[in-house]
Amino acid sequence: MNAPASARLPTLGERLVVASHNPGKVREIAELVRPFGVSVVTAGELGLDEPEETGSTFEENATLKAVAAAGAGGRPALADDSGLAVDALGGAPGVYSARWAGPDKDFAIAMRLVEDRLQALGATTPDRRTARFVAALCLAFPDGSSELYRGEVEGTLVWPPRGTGGFGYDPMFVPNGHDQTFGELPAKVKAGISHRARAFARFAEARLNG
Q: What's the CATH code of the domain at 84?
């Protein structure tokens, strides 16, 4: 559930900790907040470790990361937890999306694993290859207060992967209304329709437009 901005919560300020060590996520979030006059510093730059993601939902994991970074960094922190949910796989890999890529974060392996499981189920037609990207953003403050914002984008999985843009599972995901994967679409197009962009739009409406 999205939590609206409230007078009881501290102000955002002009510098935000991005509680992630994922260069792709950091880059996307930095681009999203820049037009609002907000700059970012990463958890890595502050020497902050990411806590273990023990939550069972995207929201729980985003909150774990944001609250830890805000407490350790002494300034507002924004964390993202996101992943791919494949309908034929019962929502997997879901919160385990990054873990499917193994310790080396090799998403070629992760995409192959998704495809192998779909093939094992006989899911070879578009109607059986529906999926969605989900992103949960948590904005946390040093006083322990926090807000959550969620975004989703529906699409279909293709094989073989196409395109070299984006990151993660992007090259096998075609968002509804398009015929190119997130790996093929121009970055500016993806930035306007992605799950992270949709979650960010809710965050911006509550925190940056006022």
A: 3.90.950.10
